Structure formats: C-alpha cells, structure tokens
Amino acid sequence: MSKIDLSGRSHKALEIVLGGHVEPLPRKGAVIHSQNGGGDYKVTENFCTCPDFQYRGGNICKHVRAYRVFKTLEKADCESELGDSDE
C-alpha cells in the first residue's frame, strides 16, 4: 500500500475543503474563499486566479487541488446516493 503525501499544498487543500471554503459555481468551477480572509479565487480543474498559481506559471496551487478533491468527493456522494436508491 502506497503512502499519500499530505504535506504542503495537498494538506492545505484538504483543510480548505473540510473548512467549507469551496463554493461551487452553477456552470463550471468554484470560488474558493481564502482561509485567512485574503480574498476569493475563481478555480477550475486547471486554473486559479490566486497569485501563487500566476507566479508559478500554472503549476497547481492548493486551490486547484482543493477543487479537485471537492469534485471527487461530490462525485462519490452522488454515486453513493444512486447506489442507495437501488436497495
């Protein structure tokens, strides 16, 4: 069994999701509310308006990671609900 690296941006991404800082947008993406009150960032699977994403030339920031985790959990919840209705 391999270990998941939860250091750095991955750990912060989980904190963002668990802290309720992800607000899905109606069509695509989400708004991620800053944990420290520093602003809101528009995020998709591969883009973020935060300074870290812009500075690092498109390398994945904690907000994009958080959005991906959020979407994965959202999908798992939907699949779970579909599975529950079959019983």
Instruction: Work out the helicity level.
Output: 40-55%
The count of DSSP E runs of length 2 or more, i.e. the number of strands, is: 3
The number of helices is 3
Task: Enumerate the spans where pLDDT stays under 50 for 5 or more consecutive residues.
Answer: none
Largest sheet: 3 strands, antiparallel
Q: What is the H/E string?
A: HEEEHH
Look at the helices and sheets and give the structural class: alpha+beta
Strand content: 5-15%
The total number of structural domains is 1
Radius of gyration: 14 Å
The average pLDDT score comes to 86
Shape: globular
Head-to-tail CA distance between termini: 32 Å
Strand order of the largest sheet: 1-2-3
Write the layout of secondary structure elements.
Layout: H1 8-18, E1 22-24, E2 30-33, E3 40-43, H2 51-55, H3 62-85
Antiparallel strand pairs: 1-2, 2-3
Q: Can you walk through the features of this model?
A:
The structure is a single chain. The chain is α+β, with helices and mostly antiparallel strands and 87 residues long. The protein has one domain. Helix content is 46%, strand content 13%. It is built from 3 helices and 3 strands. It has helices at residues 8-18, 51-55, 62-85, and strands at residues 22-24, 30-33, 40-43. The chain has a 3-stranded antiparallel sheet with strand order 1-2-3, with helices on one face. Strand 2 and strand 3 form a beta hairpin. Helix 1 crosses helix 3. The radius of gyration is 14 Å and the shape is globular. The mean pLDDT is 86.
